[in-house]
Amino acid sequence: MVRRSFSDLFRSAAEAGPHDILKLYNPKGNIINISLSLEPNSPNCCYKLEVVAADCNSEPLGAELAGALGFDLSSMEKRLQGLEKNILIEAGETPAVVYEMKKQVESFQEKLESVEHLSWLGLFKNLSEGTHKPSPFYHKRTLHKTRKECEHVREKFLQMSSLKVSEEVRQYLKTPTFDNWQWEDAEIMVLLQVMYTDLDFIVAFNIEPEVLQQFLFEIYRRYNNIPFHNFKHCFCVTQMMYGLIWLTDLKSKMDSVDLLIMLTSAVCHDLDHTGYNNAYQINARTELALRYNDISPLENHHCAVAFEILEKTESNIFRNLSMDQYKRIREGIIKCILATDMTRHNEILNQFKAILPAFDFTNKDHRDVLMMILIKVSDISNEARPMEVAEPWLDCLLQEFYNQSDKEKLEGLPITPFMDRDKVTKPSSQTGFIRFVLLPLFIELANLFPCLEQHIIDPVRKALDYYTEMEKALEREKQNRAQSDNAVKSKETTVGPQS
């Protein structure tokens, strides 16, 4: 007999609709798996089941809905049992097709019981890798998303787009501790929609909901299936920018056009990235490098793709703006996205340091530099997040780096030193970067906004300590191995060859 699925049980318990987003929290407030191995709860140690995004007009699910539709679940189960019995009597044995159906049901049930979080969009992906694993099997996927893949996510996003996201999640979305790994792509699009709504862009710029939804879908579609610079990275950068806007109270210091520029720049900043950086583009003389004359080829391409999307009426979130507003926004987005080219890092940081002592929010030049600094901080902010969120991102980044250095070796191109899998270790890739790039940048921003010290600088210092200790441990292991090898060689020399 087919047992009632876990999803229906939990949806019934939460009185949730078919497209609502649910999460299960442990007593510490962490999102946890739903499985048969869950510890029993008690009055002093309660789990929390929450509908974090709901359609206020949806009907109740489960037995109530079944009753409303005229279904009697109990009689249906009895009928199934009777059918199974009749088949067994008439056929003498259970047909292979029934075994196959049961196998599929059991497989589905297993996914339900081991799902990483209570979002039923996650039921159809392979979760066997465990918690917080990097993007799955990119080497087996096409670079560009398939039409089927896009339509699947689009359908789910549109089903969920009218959900009302809970206040708790809306507040969590404003913090640097937000865990992106717990959200599916369609859910992420809902969260991006929330950002545009809660910053009052929908009203201020007369953005129609269906146009915003089409814009976000096109953004999703144009991020590629690569380990790091993918749609989830786009979300993380945008979410950090969103968090910084709220943490620093920029709504009271800058006008809404500047805020719209910053958020949209973050959304668009790595569109159609193929996983190979500017150095590779230039050395390999790719089409992008030739088109943009070796000047920030990737960043120029990201801008071009962004405005391709915005040129389409159905996805142009700026279509109701005046010509002057559009011109200002286009100029600002281009400036912000081009600022993410790391070869310009020192140039932009030095500009910011020069104006910092007399920073003036009424000065457009000052604001422009700050906007470039904010997108730069957001772009490389993973180490400001909790380690369980940040470390899987480093694994993704190293995979992309190693893919590039392997390709450079195969094509006889100069090998990018910090990407060489034969020379770079996980901790060595981070210690220098944090010490000489991240911290100096973050500290200067915190000089303007002291409140950021605890939110982004303290976590980065902890990350530096973590990777420094890891590097020392690896070095000790290397020395011990060398001593062991030398001892073996010395022993072989002393004993000499046997006759």
TrEMBL record:
The UniProt entry, under Pfam families, shows: PDEase_I (PF00233)
EC number(s) stated in the UniProt entry for this protein = 3.1.4.-
Q: In which pathway does it act?
A: Purine metabolism; 3',5'-cyclic GMP degradation; GMP from 3',5'-cyclic GMP: step 1/1
Q: Which residues form the active site?
A: H229
Give the GO terms filed under biological process for this record. Answer: signal transduction
Q: Which UniProt keywords apply?
A: cGMP, Hydrolase, Metal-binding
Signal sequence bounds: none
Enzyme class of the recorded protein, top EC level: hydrolase
Residue sites binding Zn(2+) 2 per the record:
D270
Required co-factors: a divalent metal cation
The transmembrane residues are none
Which residues are noted in the entry as AMP-binding?
A: H229, N230, F231, K232, H233, D270, D379, Q430
Q: SUPFAM superfamilies per the record?
A: HD-domain/PDEase-like
Region (Disordered) residue spans: 475-499
Annotated InterPro entries: HD/PDEase_dom, PDEase, PDEase_catalytic_dom, PDEase_catalytic_dom_sf, PDEase_CS
Q: List positions binding Zn(2+) 1.
A: H233, H269, D270, D379
Question: Which top-level group of life is the source organism from?
Answer: Eukaryota
Q: List the catalytic activities from the record.
A: 3',5'-cyclic GMP + H2O = GMP + H(+)
Known function: Specifically hydrolyzes the second messenger cGMP, which is a key regulator of many important physiological processes. Highly specific: compared to other members of the cyclic nucleotide phosphodiesterase family, has the highest affinity and selectivity for cGMP. Specifically regulates natriuretic-peptide-dependent cGMP signaling in heart, acting as a regulator of cardiac hypertrophy in myocytes and muscle. Does not regulate nitric oxide-dependent cGMP in heart.
Similarity section? Belongs to the cyclic nucleotide phosphodiesterase family. PDE9 subfamily.
What protein is this chain from?
Phosphodiesterase
Q: Which organism is it from?
A: Cyclopterus lumpus (Lumpsucker)
Organism ancestry: Eukaryota, Metazoa, Chordata, Craniata, Vertebrata
